[in-house]
Design a protein that fits this description.
Keywords: ATP-binding, Kinase, Nucleotide-binding, Phosphoprotein, Transferase. InterPro entries: H_kinase_PdtaS_GAF_sf, HATPase_C_sf, HATPase_dom, His_kinase_dom, PAS-like_dom_sf, PdtaS_GAF, Sig_transdc_His_kin_sub2_dim/P. It is an enzyme of class 2 (transferase). The protein is an alpha+beta fold. Among the domains are: 146 residues, GAF domain (Beta-Lactamase); 102 residues, 2-Layer Sandwich (Beta-Lactamase); 111 residues, Histidine kinase-like ATPase, C-terminal domain (Heat Shock Protein 90). The chain has 13 helices and 18 strands. The strands form four sheets. Strands 3-2-1-6-5-4 form a six-stranded antiparallel sheet, sandwiched between helices. It has a five-stranded antiparallel sheet with strand order 8-7-11-10-9, sandwiched between helices. The two termini are 43 Å apart. The relative contact order is 0.06.
Length: 520
């Protein structure tokens, strides 16, 4: 489905400020759809002012939909005589007439009789949308009446609240321009709803909302009570701040914001929607959601994250201990080949330890690989046994990489730099350059994201008969196994025309390695 911004720019001449208003409106109009038990369609004028285009649509979660098909990008032109089907033409003309009426008269308009043209009875209403006193769009509100019955107290409260919200939209009072930041999962109508009067007293409490307050320790009746005082008393009894202004203002429905209250081991999330019609406070809606289980799981995840970081820290310490022991053993050896082998083992263990050290400081299994790469490159160059002065440098950024990619890639870089120092730079000094290009994913299945790495030195180059697939060099065998086998990439090693060696690696940003299953 086309994005709202794209449709606005494609079909209309509206300003950026109007677009931002639409974004705020559609991000919060699920509330109106659920309270109305109705579908909502946002219509805006075409650029040539010759009709309307639907740019967004919302279905209710509290009732049946009135439209089986999406209406987004539907165009209603002033002249629809070109439509051959008379029934379709009649239905569209009737719909457009009600939209035109709300636009021309600047007020909420309702159809007298239900529309049966779609096979089910649908009651149509249109709501003008204002921003700073200017009409910018019309909302079509369509209610499926096929399951109509005598409304309950809950449904009557929903409809009354929906009427207040619709009036606020027509007066430019909703959405709120000064609304505080909303939580990731804000309470919805079905989670629990409280209706407050002008003084902040509860005039209606849905069963879910009442149950949430019972879990906080409420024993008295909620209807007729001042919600701000009641909520603050419950929080204070559980050791909360008795002067928590944020909680007081939210529970009192005075400002559009969210807050949480904890008591008796339960956590309840509140969201307030002040109702203002004709410039006069008409009360407020407070949506309630019991998030006790959600917060418990979040605490468990935080504990697990801390445990994982501690494990990485201990692994790093153990690896450093192993490297130190290998280094001590290397100093005691008189055989050059044995000492060189132990030095290589020290470097390999050290490169893995660096990754675990970085992972011990991050809350997730993702690290900034640029820091790791710089440390690994410097370490590999410093432990050279050739005595050459090496100038390594990195060009480009690796960015954030997962631990599954970072660990083998750090070993690959260490091996390649070390190999360039030991076998490529025969002279007293030389340079090694690590070039990186990151091609981030676009969202398309055929473009998941790739990483391109080049390790270039200005040394003596490759032997004439060099074959990367048949090499007996342990370091290059490790590199080939990690790049092709673990990282799902490709490896190419060729001499440079200007002298030296060029190693090219192409690999996916996400590791294609399947985690080992211990039940095999």
């Amino acid at each position: 489905m086309p994005h709202l911004s794209d449709l606005i720019r494609r079909y209309t001449a509206l300003k950026t400020a109007d677009l931002e208003w639409f974004h705020s409106l559609v991000s919060d109009w699920q509330l109106l759809a659920d309270l109305s038990f109705a579908d909502l369609v946002l219509w805006v004028r075409l650029r040539d002012d010759n009709g309307w285009v639907a740019v967004s649509q919302m279905r209710p979660t509290t009732g049946p939909t009135a439209f089986q098909d999406d209406l987004v990008e539907t165009v209603l032109r002033d002249d629809m005589t070109e439509i051959a089907d008379e029934n379709v033409q009649s239905r569209l003309v009737g719909r457009k007439a009600l939209i035109d009426r709300a636009w021309d008269e600047g007020r909420i308009c309702r159809e007298g009789d239900p529309d049966w043209s779609g096979g089910v009875p649908v009651r149509e209403e249109t709501i003008p949308v204002r921003r700073e006193g200017k009409l910018i769009a019309v909302i079509q509100r369509s209610t499926n009446l096929s399951s109509a019955r005598t409304p309950s107290r809950l449904e009557l409260t929903y409809l009354q609240s929906a009427g207040d919200l619709a009036q606020m939209i027509s007066e430019g009072e909703f959405p709120f321009s000064d609304q505080g930041p909303l939580m990731v999962r804000s309470p919805r109508v079905g989670d629990g709803l409280l209706r407050l009067d002008q003084d902040g007293e509860v005039v209606y409490a849905s069963p879910n909302a009442l149950s949430a307050y019972r879990r906080l320790g409420l024993t008295a009746d909620l209807v007729g009570a001042r919600l701000d005082r009641t909520t603050l008393d419950l929080a204070s009894a559980a050791g909360g701040d008795p002067r928590d202004e944020s909680l007081t203002w939210t529970a009192g429905g005075r400002v559009p914001q969210e807050a949480e209250v904890e008591a008796r081991g339960s956590t309840v999330q509140l969201r307030s929607i002040p109702l203002v019609t004709g410039g006069v406070r008409a009360g407020a809606l407070v949506m309630v959601r019991d998030v006790t289980e959600l917060r418990r799981r979040e605490r468990e995840l935080m504990t697990k994250d801390a445990t994982i970081r501690e494990i990485h820290h201990r692994v790093k310490n153990n690896l450093q201990t192993v490297a130190a022991l290998l280094r001590l053993q290397s100093r005691r050896l008189n055989i050059p080949e044995g000492r060189a082998a132990l030095d290589e083992a020290v470097r390999r263990v050290g490169s893995i330890a660096i990754v675990h050290e970085m992972l011990s400081h991050t809350p997730d299994e993702v690290v900034d690989f640029d820091d790791i790469a710089d440390r690994v490159i410097e370490m590999a160059a410093e432990v050279s046994s050739t005595g050459a002065t090496v100038h390594p440098r990195r060009v480009g950024n690796f960015g954030l990489l997962s631990a599954l990619v970072a660990t083998p890639l750090s070993m690959v870089l260490a091996e390649l730099v070390q190999n360039a120092v030991e076998h490529g730079l025969k002279q007293e000094q030389g340079s090694i350059e690590v070039r990186v290009r990151r091609d981030d994913p676009t969202g398309a299945e055929d473009h998941p994201g790739r990483l391109f790495i080049e390790v270039i030195d200005d040394g003596g180059g490759l032997p004439v008969d060099f074959d990367v697939d048949g090499t007996t060099n342990l370091g290059l065998q490790i590199v080939r196994t990690l790049i092709i086998g673990e990282l799902g990439g490709s490896l190419e090693i060729k001499p440079r025309e200007s002298g030296g060696t060029r190693v090219a690696i192409e690999m996916p940003l996400e590791s294609e390695v399947q985690p080992y299953r211990w039940d095999h």
